[in-house]
Amino acid sequence: MEDWIILAIVIPIAVVDLAIRGYAIYDLSKTFDKRSDANKIGWILAIALVNAFGWILYFLFGKIPVEKVKDEESWD
C-alpha cells in the first residue's frame, strides 16, 4: 500500500480521537465539585495517556450521573 493511502486512513481517525479526548477532558472539568482532585487527575491521565481506551473507559465508568436538586420540578 502506498504511504498516501495509509495517511488518508490514519489522519481522520487521529483527528476524531483527539476531538473525543478533548471533549472527555472538557466534560471532566465541568464536574469539578463532584469528585476529588486525585480522582480527577487519575482520569485526566487515563484519558490522555491510554490509547483510545482511556476516553472510552471514562465515558463508560467515569461519568458521574447528574443529581436531582430539590428546586427542580422534573428531570427534563
Question: Can you give keywords for this protein?
Answer:
76 residues, elongated, mainly alpha, 0% strand
List the helices and strands and how they pair.
Blueprint: H1 3-30, H2 37-49, H3 53-62
Helix pairs in contact: 1-2, 2-3
Description of the structure:
This protein has 76 residues and is an all-alpha fold. The chain is built from 3 helices and no strands. It has helices at residues 3-30, 37-49, 53-62. Helix 1 (3-30) packs antiparallel against helix 2 (37-49) and helix 2 (37-49) runs antiparallel to helix 3. The longest helix is centred in the first third of the chain and has 28 residues, at 3-30. The mean pLDDT is 78.
Oligomeric status: single chain
| Largest sheet: number of strands, sense, barrel closure | none
* Terminal Cα span: 51 Å
- Poorly predicted regions: none
The total beta strand count reads: 0
List the secondary-structure elements in sequence, H or E. HHH
Range of strand content: under 5%
Number of helices: 3
Structural class: mainly alpha
- What proportion of the residues is helical, as a percent range? 55-70%
Short description:
The protein is an all-alpha fold. The protein has helices at residues 3-30, 37-49, 53-62.
